[in-house]
Amino acid sequence: MQSSLLSLPQQHGPQVQYAPEPPPGASYPSSSVELGDLKRILVRRRFLILATAALLTLAALLYGLFTPALYSSVAEIIVDPQDLQVVTNDVNPSRVPPDGGITMVESQVAVVQSSGVLLRAIAATNLTEDPEFNGQGGLLSRLLGGVLGSESTETDKTGETDKTGTTLDALRRRLAVKRADKVLVLDVIVTAKSADKAAKLANAIAQAYLADQAAARAKMATDASDSITARLEEQRKRVQRAENAVEAYKSANNMVMAAGNLVSDQELTEINTQLAAAQSRTATLKAQVDQLRRSGGAPDATSEAMRSAVISSLRAQEATLVDQVSQLGTELGPRHPSMMAAQQQLRDTRALIARELGRIGAAAETDYERALANQQALEAKVAGMKSKSLDTDQASVKLRELQRDLEAVRSVYATYLQRAQETREQVNVDSTNARIISDAMPALKKSWPPLLLLVFGAFFGGLGLGTGMALIAEYSSPTVLSSGQMQSAIDAPVVGVLPAKSARRRWWPFGGAAAQAGQRMDAVAGLALRRLFSSSRRPPDWPLVPSILLTSAPEDAAQRGRVARLLANAAAARGSRVLFIDTNAGKGQKEPQPGLLDVLRGEYAFEALSQYVPGSNVAVLGKGRPKAAFSEAQGVYYTQHMLAQASRNFELVIVDGGALADNLNASPLVAMVDEIVLVATLNATPMRDVTAASQAISVMGRLPTGALLVDEAA
Hints:
Elements lengths: L1 H5 L31 H7 L1 H21 L4 E9 L22 H11 L2 H11 L5 H4 L4 H10 L4 H22 E5 L5 E8 L2 H58 L4 E2 L2 E2 H33 L7 H5 L1 H23 L5 H55 L1 H34 L7 E5 L12 H26 L6 H8 L3 E6 L19 H16 L12 E6 L4 H17 L4 E5 L13 H5 L5 H4 L1 E2 L5 E4 L10 H15 L5 E5 L10 H6 L2 E7 L5 H13 L6 E6 L3
Parallel strand pairs: 7-14, 8-12, 8-13, 9-11, 9-12, 13-14
Antiparallel strand pairs: 1-3, 1-6, 2-3, 4-5, 10-11
Helix pairs in contact: 3-15, 5-8, 5-9, 9-14, 10-13, 12-13, 17-18
């Protein structure tokens, strides 16, 4: 019988296309996480996230409970960018920078934290003896201090230096100097285990900063004063040398000075002035003489005659006499003695006028001649002094050069002398541009540790860290996160996503109990069947019954079996007769019953082994007895024969093919079924298992035609 079955024709067998086997080193597709998939990752790895958050929260709580409390106090210092100007030429000039002093104030932050300021504060508060800051507060430090206390004096000195350095470092760690934005105020913040100590240290540092600034400015003024004073003696000697050079040159060239000028120059200037006056007088007298000469017979018309008081008096008498003569001539006649006497008086008056006019003319001539002689004498003297002055011009050029040098040296010496006096006065004047506007007060609440803030921060930080660790774990071992990712991995469509809310229940038998799965899962399963066969390329006259093989990774065996039964129930609920082949049935039985393997070996007909489940349209065929092997060609032939025979009694065959990588006996089924569906669990099935299953299907000569996903979160 077996030989006759083997000789049956296979013209109706499916045209199997073998996919190329992937290279041995091929890697599974990388995970591409979408925003919607984060929920699945976080839910799946929630224990890691919550454990990380709980661990960090516990650590923060223990730290907050066992850490000694710290208190912070703040002293505020305002720094004015415009200095106090004591004198005009101050050593520290008062200028406001273009940025309003922000840069200058920002540099003072570093000054407050400098070693000089902090050492002043340490010395003022005797902080080197405080165990909190000198590094001797612990038991180990006290023991070491007791051992080192028996050493030599030199060691004690070194230890004291180390103690100062340790205290300085500790104070720096407890100190914070801040400046708010657009504010010229420095906040000196000190943290200590005691509120009073923190306030005391903050005030000490603020005072030390002011003292350091005042000392720095006084030192600058002292250094400037000493430097200028050291140059005064040299400047004085330079002035003396310049004065001696001027006097020696004047003595060598017989140059007498008076009121800063040469006597010869002064004399020449005075004589020139006299000459100019003489020339002016001569010109004036010459004009008078010329006028008198031009008047001829009427000298009384000159301006000198008009200005003469004598002439004016005589003219008045003349006018009186003329009037008298005219009156007497009318009354008495020309020969009357009175008339004749009046005429004689008139003649005498006119003679006097003529003599006075002559005297005025002679006086003008005499004055002119005298002025002309004086002018000529002055001109001769000026000419002589000019010739003498030309001889001293070259010597005067050199003298003026020496005098200019002397004035320059005197000016520099005077400036140095004034500046030295000013800087000496600035040493004793505090021009510091900073002041304390708020003294530090003891804090009422501790600043560290903020227990509530630490706990909340640790909790949410732990959630964030746990989330990051979950994402890293997901990236290092990616799982199936979405339908798109699954479709990209197997290059086949995802025909449905089934919820898994009833996954913890015992599998229901075939038949009416399937209603317990819920209408939603039944609807999704029915829709998946429609999608599978709507895209199928089965010829219309294909003699084999429609068939679906489901496979998965070994870890998804339970989900695969559930999905296979769900599909069978969904088809049976719609009136289809279903043959359900379970390649996993019978595992662990000592005496397995005949089943699929027996059919593939040709020992039984499947009609004799399949049994209908009571109350349903589903017939079940188990795995069978793996007592003997069979060839692949033999298995393919009997698989084709079984599917052809099943078409007379069934409308659908569903095969639970198990994990194909571990079930090579299913290869004949892989070659003959219509659809090969890969089952995976969202956010649980590793991508490497999906790749391994897809590669196993490829090795058997087929490719996955679809996928069904199980969503445990639905």
